[in-house]
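Next comes this protein.

***
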Amino acid sequence: MKKLWEYIKPYLLRMTGGFAIKFTGAIMDLLIPWMLSTIIDDVIPTGDMGRVLIWGGLMILCAGAVYAFNVIPNRMAAHVARDITEEVRRDLYSKTSSLSCAQVDRLTIPSLISRITSDTYNIHRMLNMIQRLGVRAPILLVGGLIVTMAMEPRLGVVLLLLMPLMGFTIWFISKKGIPMYTETQRRVDRLVQTVRENVVGIRVIKALSKEGYERERFDKINGDLAHQEAKAGITMAATNPLMNLFLNFGLVFVILLGAFLVNSGVTKIGRIIAFQSYFTIILTAVISLSRMFVILSKGAASAGRIAEVLDMPEDLQPELTAGEERDPKAADDEFIAFDHVTFSYLGQTPNLSDLSFTIKKGETLGIIGSTGSGKSTVVNLLMRLYDVTGGQVRIGGVDVKKIPPEKLHRMFGVVFQSDVLFADTIQENIAFGRPLERGQIEEAATEAQAKDFILERDGSYESMLTIRGSNLSGGQRQRLLIARALAGQPPILILDDSSSALDYKTDASLRQAIRENLSDTTSVIVAQRISSVMQADHILVLESGKEVGYGTHDQLMESCPVYQEIAGSQLGDGIQHHKNQQKGVTV
């Protein structure tokens, strides 16, 4: 990925133009005290009013030029900073979208949000400040020193002696400040995480009357952030008063020494007045530089956090080898295959252990098991949201690692456990950016058993949803999500606990519609309810990441105690009825 410098390079010409204008304005600013000194010491004593007016007019012109040569480059700087930050933010968002689930887990979603928002804002401020003060302040500082040394070297020495002290102070405080701002951004991540959790779980918080508890939790994290911000702010804020202290002490020395020199007839009063003006210019320049170092400290910390994301390797790139990639539709007998698959999220205790099974094209696999048994992990590995620790996952006889991500993910229609609807129309939520015709959307809604409630809404398919579809019931949301998955006629359909909010009748109608209308689609159904998978061609029973049963419903009812236990808890008398059927007994 590009470094920050590479984002700046295309704008160097515009920045150079702005710097040149700033440079000219700074030189003009330095000329004004010199002109004032000349008028007081050389022009006024002659009594020539014409010369006074000419020099006064030149001062006014310089002042106007200083104003114009500051406003114009400042506007240019704002535009350049905006454009560069826009590119950084765009690439950061794109990179964030391409991160693997393991990388997102490592960085955390709240941290990624704050990097895209507050960290890019700090970069914007840094770029803007560098262009606004990066030329003007150093020119005023160095130029002021040169002019004062040329005008009156004895007074200029006072300023020259202060420079190392001020430079060391700025360096020392900046060295302390950058790590503090890095820690501040980490605490911003935690604050974003807390707010995000509260917003998502607001209904649960209200239902359980935990507003006070959550407020205390937020206050603690907010207090920690405020304390860290204050600590960093106080450290960096020490720069301004220290600079003022040093320069004001120097100004006292200059006035005392200047008074002595004027009284001795060694120098003129105009030079002392000009010297005070230059001292004020230098003081302003030093304060501007100290402000710039504060913003640079924040920007440097944020740039490091942004670079950490942009420099992350693509860890799920396809392992393409010449001649190895084949059409995934070629191997229908083992269309989906898990071959001795082992996986661990944290690289310690396996979440899946030595899992093997195959599914033919068009068949349905049901996956059932207790919470945390690894059901969703199977889906994650099949879609290559994570890479297996050991073994191999194949689709159409091809290792998923050898299939380009875009091609692989287009093969799936998927509904996850906690899927999202957007604040848009029902039609757009089903189409989801795909060029689907209205007929395809309506057909998918019909298959997902969503047509009736859609038509009952004002606006039908043009009806607007709120964020996360909060103006729908749980069952309505699930049916819309299923319609979205079906709309693209995917080769592989994954329903990860997507019917938990549906009543048994609607669930049965949905499964029948999928069997009748998507006979060529290979389905993987993850469910808690045994009724959702009992008609599947194969049922995989998981327990603590291990396969404890695999077969049809009837086979598992005879051979798998875990499956029998689940069936007993959900079907009740249906178990005895099944056993009697197996013995030929009529009830």
In short: Strands lie at 336-343, 352-359, 364-369, 390-395, 398-399, 412-415, 492-496, 522-527, 538-543, 546-551. The two ends are 70 Å apart (CA to CA). The first strand starts at residue 336 and ends at 343.
